[in-house]
Amino acid sequence: MASTTIELSVETRERLRALGGDATYEDTVIEALDALDANRFWAEAEASAAWQSNLSDTERQRRHDAIAEIGRAFDSIG
Fold first, then answer.
1. pLDDT in tens, 39-72
2. Helices marked H in the chain — which ranges?
3. How many CB atoms lie within 10 A of CB 20?
């Protein structure tokens, strides 16, 4: 894999070093990015669940019916 140079402040570099322990900077950054991705995913999932919980029964049924219709359409493809 090709590598690149990223300019960081000394403070940021030291935070990476402290966070990673004996790991490489690459491993530390990858771990931090994976954690951020997971955090954002779960935040979006929780926001969606909260939104869905506020739907009226009619809106919930309409969404359920639409999803079922899409499922049937895909089932009929192959």
1. 999 999 999 999 999 999 999 999 999 999 999 9
2. 10-20, 25-53, 57-77
3. 16
**Cα–Cα distance measured from residue 51 to residue 57, given in angstroms and rounded to the nearest whole number:** 13
Tell me the average pLDDT across 27-46.
97
pLDDT at 78: 75
- Per-residue pLDDT at 54: 97
Could you say which DSSP state residue 55 is in? S
Token readout for 38 is 């997971």
Measured CA distances, 61 to 2, 56, 71 (Å): 51, 9, 15
Query: Do the beta carbons of residue 53 and residue 63 sit within 8 Å?
Result: no
* Phi and psi, residue 9, nearest 5°: -70, 160
